[in-house]
């Protein structure tokens, strides 16, 4: 009968370093100095290093008033996986927001493999423009990660913070 070595027993007793399993996203919707202002539709998702959507975070849209009418204007999100979603999506969809800074929680990141990812924020406004902001970050065992970027018109400062 073989007995495990002392090193093997110690390795089993020690907890394995955890992957990132939560975090926060902060998105700024800038105030626009225009006469006919409409709150923007905003989609936030995570894509892997090949550019494939791996997780929807939040979609801000006016479901009650306009249903899904303007969601295709979030053209990148729509092509990457938005069109296949049933809206409203529980835990993902939410009403549009007025200008300001908003925080959203990230959960379930432990399902993602360690590596490079990007947080993507796309904003589109009726009678306005469309803008896409990408924030690179990493998921690493036992390590925190963060990143930020700033849009130029429809999306303001965007940041992501990952906790181990």
Protein model, in words:
By secondary structure, the protein is mostly beta strands. The chain is built from three helices and nine strands, in the order αβββααββββββ.
Short characterization:
Helices cover 11% and strands 41% of the residues. It has 164 residues and is mainly beta.
Helix content: 10-25%
- SS-based class: mainly beta
Mind telling me the C-alpha Rg? 19 Å
Determine the mean pLDDT.
Answer: 83
Which geometry do the CA atoms define?
globular
Strand share of the residues? Answer: 35-45%
Q: What key phrases describe this protein's structure?
A:
five-stranded mixed beta sheet, 164 residues, mainly beta
Helices and strands in order:
Blueprint: H1 6-13, E1 22-29, E2 41-48, E3 53-60, H2 63-66, H3 75-80, E4 93-94, E5 100-107, E6 115-124, E7 130-139, E8 145-150, E9 157-163
């Amino acid at each position: 009968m073989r007995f495990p070595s002392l090193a093997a027993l110690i390795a089993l007793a020690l907890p394995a370093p955890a992957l990132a399993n939560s975090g926060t996203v902060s998105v700024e919707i800038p105030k626009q100095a225009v006469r006919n202002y409409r709150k923007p539709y905003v989609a936030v998702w995570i894509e892997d290093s090949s550019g494939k959507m791996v997780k929807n975070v939040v979609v801000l849209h006016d479901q009650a008033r306009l249903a899904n009418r303007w969601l295709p204007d979030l053209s990148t999100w729509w092509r990457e996986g938005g069109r296949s979603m049933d809206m409203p999506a529980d835990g993902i969809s939410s009403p549009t927001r007025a200008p300001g800074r908003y925080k959203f929680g990230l959960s379930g990141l432990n399902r993602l493999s360690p590596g490079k990812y990007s947080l993507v924020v796309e904003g589109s406004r009726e009678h306005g423009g469309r803008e896409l902001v990408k924030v690179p970050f990493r998921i690493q065992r036992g390590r925190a990660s963060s990143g930020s970027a700033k849009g130029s018109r429809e999306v303001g400062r965007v940041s992501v913070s990952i906790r181990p």
